[in-house]
Design goal:
The protein has 99 residues and is of the alpha+beta class. It has one domain. Helices cover 22% and strands 27% of the residues. The chain has 2 helices and 6 strands, in the order βαβββββα. The strands form 2 sheets. It has a 4-stranded antiparallel β-sheet with strand order 3-4-5-6. Strand 5 and strand 6 form a beta hairpin. The two termini are 27 Å apart.
Length: 99
C-alpha cells in the first residue's frame, strides 16, 4: 500500500481536500472522511481547474456531485470519444447488464 510511501502522489481536487480536512477537524459529516486517510505527511497534489491532463491519455475532470470536489478520470480510446472511469462506468455497465 501507499500509506508509508512518500513517493506516491495522491491527486485530488482542491475543494475535495479542503472539505475532507475541514470535516475531520470539526467532526462534521462524521464517517464521510476518515482521519487515518488524511495524514498531513502524505504526498498530496491538488488541482483547481475544471480539468487537468493528469498524464498521457488520462484527464481528471472536476465533476461536483456526491461531494463538492468529486473528480473522475477519463481516457481517450481509439475510435471512442470519451471513456469515463468511475462510478459512472459501473452505472452504465449495470444498466446494460454487464455487471
Amino acid at each position: 500500500m501507499f500509506l508509508d510511501r512518500k513517493d506516491v502522489e495522491i491527486w485530488v481536487h482542491d475543494r475535495e481536500l479542503r472539505s475532507a480536512f475541514w470535516s475531520v477537524a470539526t467532526g462534521a459529516d462524521a464517517g464521510v472522511y476518515l482521519e487515518h486517510y488524511l495524514k498531513l505527511g502524505f504526498n498530496w497534489k491538488t488541482f483547481d481547474d475544471r480539468t487537468i491532463d493528469f498524464c498521457q491519455g488520462i484527464t481528471l475532470h472536476h465533476l461536483p456531485g456526491h461531494t463538492d470536489g468529486e473528480s473522475i478520470p477519463s481516457s481517450l480510446l481509439p475510435g471512442k470519444d470519451l471513456a469515463p472511469d468511475s462510478r459512472s462506468s459501473l452505472l452504465i455497465a449495470s444498466y446494460f447488464g454487464q455487471v
